[in-house]
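The instructor's notes for this session suggest beginning with a concrete chain rather than abstract definitions. Hand out the sequence below and ask the class to guess, before any prediction is shown, which regions might be ordered.
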Amino acid sequence: MFYPRQTKEFINIDPLQTGGRLSEEAKKALVEWGDGYSVCDFCTGTLDSIKTPPIYKFVHEILPEFLGCDVARITNGAREGKFAIMHAFSGCKGGEIIMDENAHYSSYVSAERAGLKVIFAKNSGYPEYIVTADDYETAIDSAKNPVLALVTYPDGNYGNLPNIKRIAKVCESNSIPLIVNGAYAIGRMDFKLKRMGGDFIVGSGHKSMASAGPVGVLGMKEDYADIVLKKSEKFKVKEIEMLGCTARGVVVMTLIASFPHIVERIKRWDEEVRKARYFAERFEELGIIQLGEKPHNHDLMFFESKVLYEISKKAKSGRFFLYKELKKKKIHGIKPGLTKHFKLSTYMLSEEEIEYIIRAFEEIIEKYSG
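After discussion, reveal the predicted structure:
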């Protein structure tokens, strides 16, 4: 039975989805390669050895250059990339990982699954929640056996962009490899691991690289390839942390198909930042306050709205009134029941769509405040 997506024609402001909209080329690949393990028909043992379609070229030539690293792999998502790294470093009993307090839950559970103890680099708290290199230094000083560190760039709550170069220097001076979780960076903005700092980078195809999912990318320095990409003793070509093969089929082909589109759109990142700042400024005129870094440097934004929260106390639909009102206006992306705090993204929205969203919130507030 076919289930149509009810919000297909809506303006989508969900940060999880704005960067994952398929390019026209990817839509064609979705149909062409949608049958089961389609690319596995061409496999001689490992996914990244497939020459036709050009998975080998993408993984071993195009992707490392794009990520600014030495070695790259396609994964089943950013979290799978993080876990592969953490598990490869988990052999030392009592190992710890330093992680920013804004880290995504999947970073934490990956560490738990790998048997690593998490020590947080604390954020600055309300209203900016900033994490600095000094916070990492403090966390490292409190650790007994740190084997890895992770920084989220940007974090999935506030859209803050920590200073990776400084954090990487702190980690390097303490001989701790650094993972950069770039799930909301890779595919949206220009990022080169060797230029920015760090030892590993993970990204998300379905969040930020215009791909069907789940799919992700993993990049690393050559120094760590033998550790993370160690091969099986019995099945000689199979990489253990990749479980032999990772993402395969249609998700790989949509990722590859969208790549030229991705390369072009990151050139317009400054425009995306400008639109986000404009949106936040206009929202604050309505009494809806942007939390996190200011001026903001990412399309993902977190807002605090006392005015909408107060309305929810009296509205017939209660805390679900905002979701229902936005649905009437064909705007999708704020989770049902959220009024006081919510996040959204302006990524790839037109000027007209941004103005429409602002007017929609203004009309909703006027409707319930009159």
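Then share the key points. The mean pLDDT is 94. The chain is about 40% helix and 15% strand.
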